[in-house]
Amino acid sequence: MQMRNGGPITDVAVDRTGFRIAAVSDVNCELNVWDLRNRNCLARMQNVHRSMPTSCEFTPDNRSIITTSTDGSVKSIDYECGRALITLRDHKHAVSSACLTTDGRLLATTSWDRSILLYDLQTGAYRNQGPTVLTGAHQGSISCSSMSAAGDILVTGGLDKLIIVWDPDKGHHVLSLNGHKDWVNTVKISTDERVVLSASKDKTIRLWDVLSRERMTTGTMVDTHAKVNKSKTSRAPPVPMVRGRLEYSAFVPSRLLTPMFSVNFGLGPTSKVRCLVHRKSNLIPLLVYYTMSRFS
């Protein structure tokens, strides 16, 4: 399935129903929203930020989209009426990602300034007291984030190749996951909070068992002309027709789309991990499914 966007895509998001998809792009700082059922464009907004948007995320009610930008701002945009409901400018550098709890109470943002900011949107206390700041674990810019449904676990990835697991309530990190050989582009935590999915510039997808602190398996995406990765930790064959580094990933509803192709991680026929991966392109999206039931 392909849908045209105005320029190079910097992030995509799927709403909680699995029927709507949003994308932000560099050209004209665009935000676009489509209905996957009929492929209609529901919204097309330009200049949502002053410089390149870096991420987008639907709010739990699916009425707004949280966007971040290299201009250092975070916005909550009502895409139906085309205006920003909230604008935050507390980071000192480009904002790389944002994530929300399922009730929309807690918002976490990450930045190239190596900090994580937490906003309680329910009480609005950040307006007077400022956001809660988490720092000290990453040794470089933070590139991505994912939060558990209740907000008790926050996972971040960075240019330092590390994945950090945080306890937002206590305000400190509890676990560091080291294994990627290049910067981490995306992290997602599963709904049962047991598994973290990560994708990196090193062209690998990794699944981490957060409870045992071990990497469970690795899938590798390589250029079709590249040599097959024969390392013992790589149980997935190269995916055909995909070039370049892995950019983004997500656990997605099984009904979303028919897989364009599948890769078996070797964890058994009953397992079902589903992930969405796309690369920077004018076409949206490139979808890859990995299936495994123990994490559904």
UniProtKB/TrEMBL annotation:
Keyword field contains Lipoprotein: no
Pfam families: WD40 (PF00400)
SUPFAM superfamilies for the chain: Quinoprotein alcohol dehydrogenase-like
Annotated WD repeat ranges: 88-129, 135-176, 177-218
Keywords for the protein's UniProt record, in alphabetical order: Repeat, WD repeat
Keyword RNA-binding: no
Record-linked InterPro entries: Quinoprotein_ADH-like_sf, WD40/YVTN_repeat-like_dom_sf, WD40_PAC1, WD40_repeat_CS, WD40_rpt
Protein name per the record: WD_REPEATS_REGION domain-containing protein
Protein source organism: Echinostoma caproni
